[in-house]
Amino acid sequence: MTGVYLFDLASQQARYLAVRQSTIASNVANANTPDYKARDVVPFSEVMARTASAGITMTESAHVTSGENRIPTKPVAAADAWDALSTSSSVSLEQEMLKAGEVSRDHNLNMGIVKAFDRMLKAAVKS
């Protein structure tokens, strides 16, 4: 019988979502900063592919955001931005709010799956 790694995967996604939310918050905070370039994290699938190929074992939650194996961010291309503010910042507050909504939805889905899996495991152990 193989192990069930759903909780580990959910934990990794929760850390990813925390980094993405922090990046979005930084973009919003710097919306009026001249020449600030908006950033976003790479998709979760790319993060998982890097993690799986490197055979990384995480021993501390801080390891996800520092060093070689941190969740990478990338500048948002000017073509991807909607309207730049008059301060020459590449931050679009509308896009950042949409991204924040995505993060919230993904987090709620993650928590719902973990709760359902936890209930299923408890029911299996009780019977």
List the helices and strands and how they pair.
Layout lengths: L5 H24 L9 E3 L2 H11 L18 E3 L17 H34 L1
Antiparallel strand pairs: 1-2
Helix pairs in contact: 1-3
| Order of the strands making up the biggest sheet | 1-2
Structural class: mainly alpha
Rg, Cα atoms, Å: 18 Å
Q: What's the main sheet like? A: 2 strands, antiparallel
Number of helices: 3
Overall mean pLDDT:
78
State the total count of DSSP E strands.
Answer: 2
Helix content: 40-55%
The run of helices and strands is HEHEH
Low-confidence stretches: 65-69
Straight-line N-to-C gap = 19 Å
Describe the global form.
elongated
Estimate the strand proportion: under 5%
Short description:
The chain has 127 residues and is mostly helical.
Describe the overall structure.
This protein is mainly alpha-helical and 127 residues long. Helices cover 54% and strands 5% of the residues. It contains three helices and two strands, in the order αβαβα. A two-stranded antiparallel ribbon has the order 1-2. Mean pLDDT is 78; it is low at 65-69.
